Protein backbone atom coordinates (compact mmCIF):
# COMPACT_ATOMS: atom_id res chain seq x y z
CA UNK A 1 0.00 0.00 0.00
CA UNK A 2 1.08 3.54 -0.64
CA UNK A 3 0.73 6.31 1.90
CA UNK A 4 -1.72 9.09 1.16
CA UNK A 5 -0.08 12.20 -0.22
CA UNK A 6 0.12 15.02 2.35
CA UNK A 7 0.97 18.29 0.56
CA UNK A 8 3.74 20.30 2.30
CA UNK A 9 1.50 23.37 2.57
CA UNK A 10 -0.76 21.59 5.03
CA UNK A 11 1.93 20.35 7.43
CA UNK A 12 3.20 22.22 10.49
CA UNK A 13 2.50 25.88 9.88
CA UNK A 14 -0.95 27.24 10.40
CA UNK A 15 -2.21 30.42 8.79
CA UNK A 16 -1.74 33.55 10.95
CA UNK A 17 -5.48 34.10 11.14
CA UNK A 18 -6.37 30.49 11.84
CA UNK A 19 -8.98 30.54 14.62
CA UNK A 20 -7.78 29.33 17.98
CA UNK A 21 -11.28 28.72 19.19
CA UNK A 22 -14.77 29.06 17.84
CA UNK A 23 -15.78 32.70 17.79
CA UNK A 24 -19.19 33.73 19.01
CA UNK A 25 -21.47 36.11 17.14
CA UNK A 26 -20.54 39.11 19.28
CA UNK A 27 -16.78 38.83 18.64
CA UNK A 28 -17.20 38.36 14.91
CA UNK A 29 -19.44 41.44 14.78
CA UNK A 30 -16.73 43.42 16.59
CA UNK A 31 -14.21 42.30 13.98
CA UNK A 32 -16.58 43.36 11.20
CA UNK A 33 -17.00 46.82 12.76
CA UNK A 34 -13.24 47.01 13.25
CA UNK A 35 -12.70 46.20 9.57
CA UNK A 36 -15.28 48.80 8.54
CA UNK A 37 -13.74 51.42 10.85
CA UNK A 38 -10.33 50.86 9.25
CA UNK A 39 -11.70 51.51 5.76
CA UNK A 40 -13.76 54.58 6.68
CA UNK A 41 -11.16 56.15 8.96
CA UNK A 42 -8.53 55.60 6.27
CA UNK A 43 -10.57 57.57 3.76
CA UNK A 44 -11.19 60.42 6.22
CA UNK A 45 -7.51 60.41 7.27
CA UNK A 46 -6.37 60.81 3.67
CA UNK A 47 -8.43 64.01 3.39
CA UNK A 48 -7.34 65.33 6.79
CA UNK A 49 -3.65 64.57 6.34
CA UNK A 50 -3.41 65.83 2.75
CA UNK A 51 -5.20 69.02 3.80
CA UNK A 52 -2.81 69.38 6.73
CA UNK A 53 0.25 68.87 4.54
CA UNK A 54 -1.04 71.29 1.91
CA UNK A 55 -1.71 74.03 4.46
CA UNK A 56 1.41 73.52 6.55
CA UNK A 57 3.99 72.81 3.84
CA UNK A 58 2.83 74.26 0.54
CA UNK A 59 0.58 77.32 0.89
CA UNK A 60 1.73 80.83 1.90
CA UNK A 61 5.47 80.27 2.15
CA UNK A 62 5.48 76.71 3.38
CA UNK A 63 7.38 75.46 6.40
CA UNK A 64 9.29 78.70 6.97
CA UNK A 65 6.23 80.51 8.31
CA UNK A 66 5.40 77.92 10.99
CA UNK A 67 6.19 79.28 14.43
CA UNK A 68 4.50 79.94 17.77
CA UNK A 69 2.35 82.71 16.30
CA UNK A 70 1.18 80.56 13.39
CA UNK A 71 0.10 77.74 15.72
CA UNK A 72 -1.53 80.23 18.11
CA UNK A 73 -3.50 81.81 15.26
CA UNK A 74 -4.51 78.46 13.88
CA UNK A 75 -5.70 77.02 17.21
CA UNK A 76 -7.61 80.21 18.02
CA UNK A 77 -10.19 78.90 15.54
CA UNK A 78 -12.50 76.09 16.67
CA UNK A 79 -12.47 74.78 13.08
CA UNK A 80 -8.72 74.06 13.20
CA UNK A 81 -8.96 72.66 16.71
CA UNK A 82 -11.58 70.16 15.54
CA UNK A 83 -9.56 69.40 12.37
CA UNK A 84 -6.43 68.60 14.37
CA UNK A 85 -8.40 66.73 17.02
CA UNK A 86 -10.07 64.53 14.38
CA UNK A 87 -6.72 63.88 12.78
CA UNK A 88 -5.17 62.94 16.14
CA UNK A 89 -8.01 60.67 17.25
CA UNK A 90 -8.52 58.93 13.92
CA UNK A 91 -4.80 58.37 13.33
CA UNK A 92 -4.29 56.99 16.84
CA UNK A 93 -7.35 54.73 16.75
CA UNK A 94 -6.63 53.59 13.18
CA UNK A 95 -3.05 52.67 14.05
CA UNK A 96 -4.02 51.03 17.34
CA UNK A 97 -6.69 48.96 15.61
CA UNK A 98 -4.14 47.75 13.07
CA UNK A 99 -1.65 46.91 15.82
CA UNK A 100 -4.40 45.10 17.77
CA UNK A 101 -4.96 42.92 14.72
CA UNK A 102 -1.24 42.15 14.45
CA UNK A 103 -1.06 41.28 18.17
CA UNK A 104 -4.09 38.99 17.89
CA UNK A 105 -2.61 37.29 14.82
CA UNK A 106 0.91 36.66 16.10
CA UNK A 107 0.90 36.56 19.93
CA UNK A 108 0.69 32.85 20.67
CA UNK A 109 0.18 32.82 24.43
CA UNK A 110 -2.98 34.28 25.95
CA UNK A 111 -0.96 36.01 28.68
CA UNK A 112 1.39 37.64 26.18
CA UNK A 113 -1.54 38.75 24.06
CA UNK A 114 -3.31 40.21 27.12
CA UNK A 115 -0.32 42.26 28.27
CA UNK A 116 0.50 43.50 24.78
CA UNK A 117 -3.11 44.64 24.37
CA UNK A 118 -3.01 46.33 27.80
CA UNK A 119 0.19 48.19 26.85
CA UNK A 120 -1.42 49.21 23.58
CA UNK A 121 -4.55 50.49 25.35
CA UNK A 122 -2.46 52.43 27.88
CA UNK A 123 -0.38 54.07 25.14
CA UNK A 124 -3.50 54.99 23.17
CA UNK A 125 -5.17 56.55 26.22
CA UNK A 126 -2.00 58.46 27.12
CA UNK A 127 -1.40 59.79 23.61
CA UNK A 128 -5.01 60.72 22.88
CA UNK A 129 -5.47 62.23 26.34
CA UNK A 130 -2.33 64.37 26.21
CA UNK A 131 -2.92 65.42 22.60
CA UNK A 132 -6.51 66.45 23.34
CA UNK A 133 -5.38 68.34 26.43
CA UNK A 134 -2.76 70.25 24.44
CA UNK A 135 -5.19 71.18 21.66
CA UNK A 136 -7.85 72.52 24.02
CA UNK A 137 -5.63 74.14 26.68
CA UNK A 138 -3.07 75.77 24.37
CA UNK A 139 -2.51 79.32 25.61
CA UNK A 140 -0.90 81.66 23.05
CA UNK A 141 -0.29 84.34 25.71
CA UNK A 142 2.38 82.37 27.61
CA UNK A 143 5.61 84.32 27.38
TrEMBL record:
Transmembrane segments: 36-55, 75-93, 114-138
Alphabetic keyword roster: Heme, Iron, Membrane, Metal-binding, Transmembrane, Transmembrane helix
One Pfam family in the UniProt entry: Sdh_cyt
Keyword Oxidoreductase: no
Keyword Disulfide bond in record: no
Residue ranges of the region described as Disordered: 1-21
Subcellular location: Membrane
Molecular-function GO terms, alphabetical: metal ion binding
InterPro entries: SQR/QFR_C/D, SuccDH_FuR_B_TM-su
GO cellular component, one term: membrane
Full protein name: Succinate dehydrogenase
Organism: Nakamurella endophytica
Amino acid sequence: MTAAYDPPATRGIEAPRAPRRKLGGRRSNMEMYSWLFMRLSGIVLVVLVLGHLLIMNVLDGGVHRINWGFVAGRWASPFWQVWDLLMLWLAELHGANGLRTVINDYARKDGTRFWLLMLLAASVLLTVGLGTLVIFTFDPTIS
